[in-house]
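Could you join me in thinking about how sequence relates to backbone shape in a protein? We need material for that, and I hope you will provide a protein of your own picking. Once you have written the record down, we can walk along the chain together:

…
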Amino acid sequence: MDPQELRRRFATLTTAHLADACIRARVPVRCAPASTRAVVPGDRLAGRVAPARHAGSVDVFLEAFEKAAPGDVLVVDNGGRLDESCVGDLVALEARSAGLEGVVIWGLHRDTADIRAIGLPVFSLGSIPTGPLRLDDRPEGALESAVVGEWTVGRDDLVLGDDDGVIFLPAAGAGDLLTLAEKIRDTERRQAERIHEGVSLREQVRFGAYLAERERTPSLTFRDHLRAVGGAVEE
């Protein structure tokens, strides 16, 4: 998907909409760990994954920038370490100069004030003053894939982030997931508008009818009921 088109469509969505779309489409919901947050609250990013496995030296990031295309997002695997940072102001500044959309780190950053001033979205597990504390051998495939939490991602994936966190989508079929997310968004907006108008969510999803039917059919789930009435509260 064209990077500009991806950003345009994500601008009216949230990562929550995309997660619901994945569930609806029976695609694995691949979220970064819950503590992954933007350095600047409110920042958003969307782009193709440019992976890099950090081993203690900045050169892996510079090489990743050589391979990246404008609109990509640097996804840094530092093993979720909480004793060192691996990205600071110079990496963020170089990423912006290379045309990247942002940085996602499974680990920590530093130079928080400078990163805020640079204006490039950076998502991480938090900050710490110290930089890398070791220099290990570069792992095989350091620029082919990155691990973030329980997920391994690469150039065939997209990464999107907002105030709820970070989610990864397969690039193949991303358009269909975005379309499904837009439908979920529109349904939820209509439901919210009706609540403001005085029609409760229970009325909208015919919750009383669900309870009555569940008495007759104990195996009936609320999700089954929602599919029948067109609700979008779950999935």
Notes: The radius of gyration is 20 Å.
